[in-house]
Amino acid sequence: MDTATSAAAAIGGYVDHYLDKLLELIPAAASGDVEAIHDARAALRRVLSVHRGYGKSLFKAKGSRLKEARAVVRHLGAVRDPQVALGRLSQPPLPQDVASLPALRRALEDRADEGLARLHPKKLRRRAEGAAGALRLRDADFPNGAVAELLRQQWELCERLRLEAQAYSAGAARWTHLHAERKALKRLRYMAESLQAWASDGSARVAAGAEQRQEALGALNDCWQLELWLVGALRLKGVSEDDVVRLLGAEDGALSACDGDYRAVAAEPIRRPELPTA
Hints:
Layout: H1 7-30, H2 34-58, H3 63-89, H4 101-117, H5 121-135, H6 144-165, H7 172-193, H8 200-232, H9 241-265
Helix pairs in contact: 1-2, 1-5, 2-3, 2-7, 3-4, 3-5, 3-8, 6-7, 7-8, 8-9
């Protein structure tokens, strides 16, 4: 990405880059391409995170268009989320000799197929184009200092959540808290990434630290979400309670290992953002 003369110019270029990528990927995503679905969803999430992090104070987008953009994310997620769960269910450390596995896999495949059937390529493309038009920054001009302050506030939120997590032992309360921390870290990462064309050194360190923790928490969240789904899957035909208990036991071990990985990377705070304000 080219060097930007201001924070506003850097954010504008970042937003344009990922919205262009979104529109490029949407046709393949609507046809069911797994990688395109993942990448299109990630591109739009980046832009929405930047708008939520900076937009409320520094620039506006119509609420209806933001709602449309979130709908696109949800539509793509309706396909992607069961695919992620199916991937976890189909490989170690989960045992593969469980009698209920075929029924569980079919249920996830059906969920992904249902989500794909609701994508409606023309409608999805129209919504994506509408969201992209509203989310682009046109001639944005806001103070560098205000941008630096908002990034600092997001860093402080992440640091507070990191410290609060230390009070929770393993269990639902901890996993739920860490999910909130993961979302905050995603926003911090994307907010910092969007400034790299303007203040590469200071923002790159923040983005790298946030990404490392976000990825550790992402692996943990995948385990936790599968556990929640497995409990709900007890009602499915062909699924036995004993099988679900066995799978949950194995997933508990994976979840604990992910928590250990997170604790290792979260032992110290991410370096405080140091950005120019002039």
